[in-house]
């Protein structure tokens, strides 16, 4: 039997909140973060809604400890990683051992509806965090990890694309303008390295980029590193910032909704892109001995159906195999699952493929299920991490999140997603799906300790 992998910390930032408490409060209130573009400069500014985090890079830098010239994806990643480590009882960057981030105690969880305002959180960050470190330059004073081997497995799909998009128009107009150094941060691994350097994580650093399943695969990989004895602690998850590159690319595929999305609806018209970051702290049984674990990562599986570059197989083959494999890894049956966090993007292809796979595996008994992308939009490389955080919170409070704006259930499916927030449900196991381009499908199962 595999050694257990525990989760001791969570961290998140998205369009619905800067931290765990704010995000959970928004989920309870049914307050989506999807609206008009405010920060991103795009020709589609007035026609395509997005799930944008309202802070400037300067504000995010103050919250993260990085320079405001860092890629926006790195800023978001550092914020969520800091919160996760602090909740787990670690305090990187010289903040003092055992301290908690943004009001969340180690091993604890926020109560629904208790989140502080976004403005107040930004103000605290602006006065309480210093200037950042650049790639390759670790902050002075390495943290004491208590002799534990700690790694960072982080996912993203855009790297420093925001800096690249700013650099090239200037450079092409005048080769003497722009900062060529900004292009150094373009590739995905640069984001992970910046965050690892900032926090003094040096035992193992790796980047995963498998489209929309990226951060779920990072968590999968982190668990395997622990189970095979390579590391004691892994911070795993992912982040992505909005960029013109992804907006234009998805628009070319004609899968963006011009209104706030309504996943799993018969009349769905596409997805809304978002930005954010979500991370979990995975620890070995030995490392968890002196903590209060939040959950275990009991099951995980990846399947590649390779049906099409950007579409899922109509019958949901990859989705089905990923969910089935995760159940087998966890030693569970479909009836053990208390809630499913669907990938649920809102596109015609994804929702019918995933829905068909759920029907094949769970029929005739379906647990409560919903897509939280109706709140956060599709955060691409960050989505699996953000939804892993939401899944662990679901376990702790018995939360079932609403599938917002669902009006007409899909006629092909015999189940209807939840449309109201509820708490106190008896949930022992949560299944979270993350399915990416190229048929890269990953499912994770989180269980009570």
Fill in the keyword field for this structure.
alpha/beta; Peroxisomal Thiolase, Chain A, domain 1; single chain; 13 helices; 449 residues; 32% helix; 2 domains; 10 strands; 10-stranded mixed β-sheet
Structure commentary:
Residues 102-126 have a biased composition (Low complexity). Residues 58-448 form the Ketosynthase family 3 (KS3) domain. Belongs to the thiolase-like superfamily. Beta-ketoacyl-ACP synthases family. The chain has helices at residues 20-29, 57-64, 72-87, 118-128, 161-173, 180-183, 188-199, 214-227, 244-252, 317-330, 348-362, 373-376, 383-397, and strands spanning 6-13, 150-155, 204-208, 233-240, 276-283, 295-304, 339-341, 369-370, 429-436, 440-447. It is of the alpha/beta class and 449 residues long. Strands 3-2-4-5-1-6-10-9-7-8 form a ten-stranded mixed sheet, with helices on both faces. Helix 2 crosses helix 4 (118-128), helix 3 (72-87) packs across helix 7 (188-199) and helix 10 (317-330) packs across helix 11. The two termini are 16 Å apart.
């Amino acid at each position: 039997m595999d050694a257990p992998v525990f989760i001791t910390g969570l961290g998140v930032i998205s369009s619905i909140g800067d931290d765990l408490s704010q995000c959970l409060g928004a989920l309870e209130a049914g307050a989506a973060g999807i609206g008009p573009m405010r920060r991103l400069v795009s020709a589609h500014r007035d026609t395509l809604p997005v799930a944008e985090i309202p802070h400037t890079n300067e504000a995010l830098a103050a919250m993260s400890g990085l320079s405001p010239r860092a890629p926006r994806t790195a800023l978001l990643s550092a914020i969520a990683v800091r919160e996760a480590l602090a909740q787990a009882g670690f305090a990187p960057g010289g903040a003092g051992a055992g301290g908690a981030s943004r009001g969340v105690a180690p091993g604890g969880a926020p109560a629904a509806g208790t989140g502080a305002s976004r403005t107040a959180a930004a103000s605290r960050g602006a006065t309480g965090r210093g200037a950042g470190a650049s790639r390759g330059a670790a902050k002075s004073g390495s943290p004491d990890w208590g002799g534990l081997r700690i790694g960072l497995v982080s996912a993203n799909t855009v790297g420093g694309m925001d800096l690249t998009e700013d650099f090239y128009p200037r450079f092409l107009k005048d080769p003497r303008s722009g900062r060529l150094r900004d292009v150094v941060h373009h590739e995905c691994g640069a984001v992970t390295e910046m965050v690892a350097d900032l926090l003094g994580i040096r035992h193992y650093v790796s980047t995963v980029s498998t489209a929309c399943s990226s951060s779920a695969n990072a968590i999968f990989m982190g668990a395997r590193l622990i189970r095979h004895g390579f590391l004691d602690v892994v911070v795993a998850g992912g982040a992505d910032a909005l960029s013109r590159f992804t907006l234009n690319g998805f628009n070319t595929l004609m899968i963006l909704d011009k209104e706030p999305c309504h996943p799993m609806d018969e009349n769905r018209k596409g997805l809304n892109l978002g930005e954010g970051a979500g991370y979990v702290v995975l620890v070995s049984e030995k490392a968890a001995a002196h903590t209060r674990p939040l959950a275990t990562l009991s099951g995980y599986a990846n399947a590649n159906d390779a049906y099409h570059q950007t579409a899922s197989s109509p019958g949901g083959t990859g989705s089905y195999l990923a969910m089935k494999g995760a159940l087998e890894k966890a030693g569970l049956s479909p009836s053990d699952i208390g809630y499913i966090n669907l990938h649920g993007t809102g596109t015609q292809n994804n929702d019918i493929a995933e829905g068909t796979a759920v029907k094949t595996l769970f029929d005739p008994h379906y647990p409560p299920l919903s897509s939280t992308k109706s709140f956060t939009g599709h955060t691409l490389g960050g989505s699996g991490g953000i939804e892993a955080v939401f899944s662990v919170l679901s376990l702790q409070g018995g939360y079932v999140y609403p599938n917002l704006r669902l009006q007409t259930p899909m006629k092909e499916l015999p189940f209807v997603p939840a449309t109201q927030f509820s708490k106190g449900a008896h949930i022992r196991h949560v299944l979270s799906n993350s399915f990416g381009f190229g048929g890269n499908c990953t499912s994770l199962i989180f269980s009570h300790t």
